[in-house]
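#data-curation
PF: Archiving a pair of folding outputs for the training set. Convention for this channel: one message per protein, sequence first, structure tokens after, nothing in between. First:
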Amino acid sequence: MIARLLSSLLFTICLAGGAQAQSFWGTTANSCVPDDDTIKDERHKVNLASVQHAPDNLGAITLNCPVTRFAPTLTTGWRLQLTYRDSTGTGEGAFVRWRLYRMQTGTFAPALIVEANSNTFATTGNNFVATPAFTHSFDFISFNYWLRVDLDRSTTNQTVIFHSVALVPDD
């Protein structure tokens, strides 16, 4: 009987620990909305779950990813985890930059919460990275939240792809 209780308690603790590692919000790149210039200039190509430059196209691609409401939480420490590819690594020619914003409902003044850039990381293949930890109490009643992702390349032999993003607690 005691062994069963201890086993159940251990299972519950493990399950609770695993729940903290789960994301509160996440999306694939193909669900983000390209801005007007990206659409007008036909700069982007949407794959099954990712976005990249259309063949022979250069310049900036801007995507806006609405952060949908998630259950209230006492968590205030966060990280954004992004999966992307930047064939130049820390080189200047290409990048993926992601920025999390909030804006009070009924206003037009966005506030930057956190940002990161692929030029900070040397990996030239697919990469899975997180922003520095940040503190924020999400309030979906008073504020709207979105992630802005910018992809840029200066030559057609550079590869810049945005795959997915997730908002996770900072453990």
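PF: Second:
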Amino acid sequence: MTTCVRTFLAVLALIIWDASSAQAEPPPLHRFFLDYAVVKHSLKNDEGAFDELMELRDLDPYAADFVAEFWWSKAKRQCNALMKEVAERYARRVTATTSEVDQERIIKEARKEIDQCIYGVYYDHWDEINRMIKQRYESIRTK
């Protein structure tokens, strides 16, 4: 494997899984919040506990971040094999002469494929996710 391909694989893995870790400060919202909103709107006909999740974040950011990190980590674990396969497949398309524009397009395609897996995990566990959100929300709200 060439150095160019190895570098591309490393960059792709960082971008797909946790680009925010390279920043000095964490993003205002965990990626889970955006993913949850996408699944809720696009796959679950706007049914879910998004309002409770956002209110929980206002009331107790640590509780909301716990929910987010728990489900995000679960999705990453379940999609890990696919992520590796996608990274290798897309890396084969990159050569030393591949333009930056084409590399960005390839990364975007790879990210979309990985996102579909992550959304699938949330879809499959939708009731569990919402139950956890509601339980945390009620326990904080009643304190």
